[in-house]
Amino acid sequence: xxxxxxxxxxxxxxxxxxxxxxxxxxxxxxxxxxxxxxxxxxxxxxxxxxxxxxxxxxxxxxxxxxxxxxxxxxxxxxxxxxxxxxxxxx
Length: 90
Known about the structure:
By secondary structure, this protein is an all-alpha fold. It is built from 2 helices and no strands.
């Protein structure tokens, strides 16, 4: 009977922990995405400045600004996962 009394409290505590975890992952992901976008934007501006005669620079800029920040975010989270867990990788 004691386990039934503590069960709702444990569930609330577990839900709160899960909610905080999701909140912090969202905050960290947003910050990393903003930094990644800034880095990619600076890279494309530098590329445009250094190579003004390069044909297709606008296409490269669009591709880089749409895809690279998300790829960097994935690489950062994957690296974090590899460094913080010890499970075997396939």
